[in-house]
Target: Zinc transport system permease protein
Amino acid sequence: MIEILQIPFMQNALIGGIILAILLSVISLFINAKNWSFISVGISHATFGGLAIGFYLGINPTLVGGLFAVIVGLLIGYISKHGKIHEDISIGILFSFSMAFGVLIMSKSPNYNTDLFTFLFGNILTITDLDIKILIGFTIFSLGFIYIFFQKILYCCFDEDVAYTSGINTSFFYYSLITIISIATVLSVKLVGVILASAMMILPATFANQFFWHYKKILFFSILFSVFIVVIGIFISYYFDFPAGTFIVFLYTLIFGIVILIKRIFKFS
Model:
């Protein structure tokens, strides 16, 4: 085990994986509170359109995908607020459009190659020093913002109308949270891919909520659970030659399923 820690790309994978696990676990608390489980799915798939544009223009796909995801995320929020329709509907519309748009661009792209599928399915072992620096910078900014406005953001998530009448600028926190989720989704693409990134934003808090109801305990246990899964997932996938990102999500889902099953057995026993 010690020799693994001496391999540079494994060191990057562990550092990047742990930072991302902490960031997404905190975000998962608000996604669960807001019942936005579909939004991370929509944004992660919408990123595909931005990645395709990046490949077509020969510009950094992660950067273009990030900008595209933020625009799509804000559009989801704007259409939902001003169109008086639920987020799930606007997500479904933009998600389908972005995927179709991405496939169309990709089919005409002279720069198209198999690297695009790396973004679809992810590869944590390709995390670079630059990726880690960007991830650390965004994590510090996001968690700092959430720490400062934690009570107000949580208030908006539970009851936006009451929060508004209490004098809280709900629109500011609404769009700020969507922007953070959008950028975090794009950064997580390299770890687990476009298709699987949403699991790391949904499962940690959902899993913790099976044991606790208080948000502080949910937050703490979400981070603990997510970091444990990522680290164990990287080690096991290395020894058994599994795709790391895919195996991490498999572990998330497997353990969550086992917990639900055990709870049902004890409930009926």
